[in-house]
């Protein structure tokens, strides 16, 4: 373990008997998880998720793994294994299947149900195969064994992949809650057996590797909810992630215990919980669920609204309630519970929602003032258990920013894994496993693939830079049509400025400068392009000197 | 205490014997602190700071208090009292003095020195009066007593203002470190005496009111720094706020103890520490300071770089080091300490810096993994002490978002202040103090005043909305010049699109649609405005249906 290699060359051709591992996403960021295992010319894919954009990626809907590395080898893909049903593991499946629709998609029952709902929206049908913990299945040379893991969504799996080159264990996302609500623990017996048989490469979730100790059991949230419900005399609104079946279960239980009915709010919440009920992952105590339209028929102290929007998303129900723009109006004395983590980067948005709710008189309970959320990822203490139970020969931390990967690698080293057997790799870095030893042997190009409206992969970093300039500074455009033969302006100059804070009078003075510039160009026999460049300089100087700013400048000089 | 009043009317005229308090900033946000006290037609101003913009205010440099309420009464201002030298308390002074340069500016020695440095940059000279803790001074009818408070900058003061209507105590920013590095504690003896004499309105810092317990003493950072210094065998880089004299002092002490020299990096760091040394607030152990140019002459294990950039500011030295774009290159084994808080909203930027430094092989020590920062604001436990020592008749929480103000008010109520005597007010809300009772009597308009390049107060919320659209979606502009009499297009259609991710070919198909639209308009005898509106519809439909996006559309149809 040391500084990340930054000057990697393309990898050598894959030698016989070697397993190659390349992440197309998820290493260096939290999201768009996807790994490619290659053996003897065939590929096995693990996960295919999306990444949500940060503020320096404005207007981007989601970010995909970079499929380029496998784009011309899709025929060699034996299967896509999905570890669980979260967006950062399944969100990009429709985009992959758009390239080759018949890739077999492997996953647990709930995972495939969530994928099916997603594919339906994209009008794609897939070839799926349902697997269970304990089950084994071979996809070409890739012999897979699926292992139960506990996470913040039911039915999550780790996958052990054995080829003649050795065994790779990929944890997916997991934690080690020893008393989970559904009794389905991370199967450390299986981990121990695999360890005894020999795990050659351990690909392990790094999300919480920096967090010391152990994650609080999910069931400790129940009593806290119970307490808040007991103290509430009016309506209760709970916001959480739309896939967190166990969290919703605890809210349903608390509501039932306190004589309240629950209305689900928000498309994804209604859809996912419908799936969870249908498949038996969510149990309804009594007739606890009601329709949102029935809420007004009940006294306030018998109502719970279960909604999304816990990250401050401006269009979600919770934000609209906080702004007074929702049919459910928050009244003084109402209670709002944000039963989710605060994902870094969303702080301002979340606090705006909390301030808005408090301004309306609501009591707001959130992870900052009560234990209403626990993480779904193993903390450092749990990871140490894993390393000691598995004793892997080589370790490749996955799922995380660089800081998480490095922290996870350091834990591996503490348990006795030699530092040179810890692969700190980012997206596109090529790891080869051969004779029980993993090594970084090169890197392939791996970029960000932006989905933006109907466009996939067309948005470039240059265009994002344009957006940042436009968003910070606005633009000034100038239009002039001129007869270059007659050397006269025939239309314009007309100025349009947006996002530039100036009085019209200020911009009027620019019209005159542009006119003079064009007239000079005409007199000097310039062509339209030269005249346009001259206008650009005039407007740029005006913005810099007069406005002390750097808006985008868009000059158009046309010859008639 | 209840929901914030949202339908306040303009206040009644100020009655004789009544003190009026209005905040022009700082109530409902963390920053741009400024309060106006009015008695008998005269005004006393307390603090005049700036607020830094959030991501929904793109391109804004800083945000000022709204001076509108006092704009035509500046002649009535007796003085501006500054509690301490942080930007959120002094940053807007140049903008206020630009309106009336001879307002007397009152503050402690270090506060006035920082103001002077700032005014020099704005080429403004001010009328100042230096005051000390324990000192009394009258400005018209406003009889002020200054009280020492402890904060994350030396020489901070609270101010008690007595008029015939009673005594107001404004804490400024403060905490109650009982063993501060400079021995200058918050003067609870003076608070106790003022309480005994009677504090009619207690205006109290709310920043940490949600945080239970007590702030860790600043001096506990020293041993942590010492430990990190002892473990470091190469260069050490420390990032902190440029005004945190005591933090820098501890770094200088640790460096000296470990045989290292310190180079200050960054304009504000060099300037502020120069002032602090000159005035005796910063003590140099030995010849510990060196120039940045001397760094390369020393072995790596004798070097400390003290810089700004702890909030991930992209242009600061630390970000550039993380990106490898700084003359100081980070090497594997170097240590970087972020000795500051992580201000909400900056998480992504800060983690980008941390990831970048770790990628280069640095060890990064920050508040997430070591005790290298403590807050400058009293936590709930400290505030309870204050309320009990002062026993104020009325309380007005200041300095904070709504959630902070409400949390602080709840603490006051717990100590026995009647709920109806706690003024939860936002910017512009008018509080009148009369006969020992404070009441909210109305509100005055109070908006956000944006500084953007050379423009102050010209940027409107509409223009910010334009910027958000431009930043998220880009724009498509179309330019056509036509002879409306001859019913022919003479130039164009020409399209310019920026921040819109599409192939040229896609936009080419739009040219044809626009041409047809304009030709139809011409044939139908439309005027240029009507033709332009038709073009807007064509482009809008194209963007929505074909691109599935909503860029800004800027059509220009000119008649020749």
TrEMBL record, chains A, B:
The family database entries (Pfam families) matched by this protein are listed as: Lactamase_B (PF00753), RMMBL (PF07521), RNase_J_b_CASP (PF22505), RNase_J_C (PF17770)
Q: Which Gene3D superfamilies match?
A: 3.10.20.580, Metallo-hydrolase/oxidoreductase, Ribonuclease Z/Hydroxyacylglutathione hydrolase-like
Q: Which UniProt keywords apply?
A: Calcium, Cytoplasm, Endonuclease, Exonuclease, Hydrolase, Metal-binding, Nuclease, RNA-binding, rRNA processing, Zinc
CDD domains linked? RNaseJ_MBL-fold
Q: What is its EC number?
A: 3.1.-.-
Question: What domain of life does the native source organism fall in?
Answer: Bacteria
List the GO terms this entry assigns under cellular component, sorted alphabetically: cytoplasm
Q: Where are the transmembrane segments?
A: none
Q: Which GO terms describe its molecular function?
A: 5'-3' RNA exonuclease activity; RNA binding; RNA endonuclease activity; zinc ion binding
Annotated Zn(2+) binding lies at 84, 86, 88-89, 151, 173, 399
Q: Which cofactor does it need?
A: Zn(2+); Ca(2+)
BP GO terms, sorted: rRNA processing
Boundaries of every Metallo-beta-lactamase domain copy: 31-225
Can you say what this protein is called? Ribonuclease J
**Organism name:** Rarobacter incanus
- Gene designation per UniProt: rnj
